[in-house]
Amino acid sequence: MAKLKTGRHTSALKALRQAYRRSQRNQQVRSLIRTVAKKLEIAIAKKDLATAKGLLNETFTAWDKAAKRGVIHWKAAARKKARLADKLARSAS
After folding, report:
1. Domain limits of the chain?
2. 37: which residues sit within 8 A by CB, 6+ positions away?
3. Which of 2, 20, 26, 76 has a CA-to-CA distance to 92 between 20 and 30 Å?
4. Mean pLDDT confidence for 62-77
């Protein structure tokens, strides 16, 4: 792309486009992991242990993928997973 006459740097414009795309993608992933976690918490609250155990695997996978891609910190994912597993274990007993 040729340099613009308005004085803006083309590299800055490209960085802006990249940041926008990445933020959109990250927003989708964050929405997904929160939705899955909320479904799990609802199943735990309803004492539906069979569904909750199935959702636990799905939740763990979603949080791990988000951490792997750098959307969230890996320790934040580990903390959330541990708390959800603990909630499930407490409701089972």
Report:
1. 10-92
2. 59, 63, 80, 84
3. 76
4. 97
What are the Cα distances from residue 46, in Å, to 15, 50, 82, 83, 90?
46, 11, 20, 17, 13
CA triplet 24, 22, 12: central angle to 5 degrees?
120
Dihedrals phi, psi of 70, to nearest 5 degrees: 85, 15
Residue in the block written with tokens 């929160």: 34
What does the pLDDT read at residue 7?
A: 67
The percent of the chain in helix, strand and coil, each rounded to the nearest 5, is 80, 0, 20
Report the share of the chain in percent with pLDDT over 70. Answer: 92
Q: What is the CATH number of domain 10-92?
A: 1.20.58.110
Please tell me which residue, 12 or 41, carries the higher pLDDT value: 41
pTM for the model stands at 0.82
Per-residue pLDDT band for 1 (boundaries 50, 70, 90) equals low
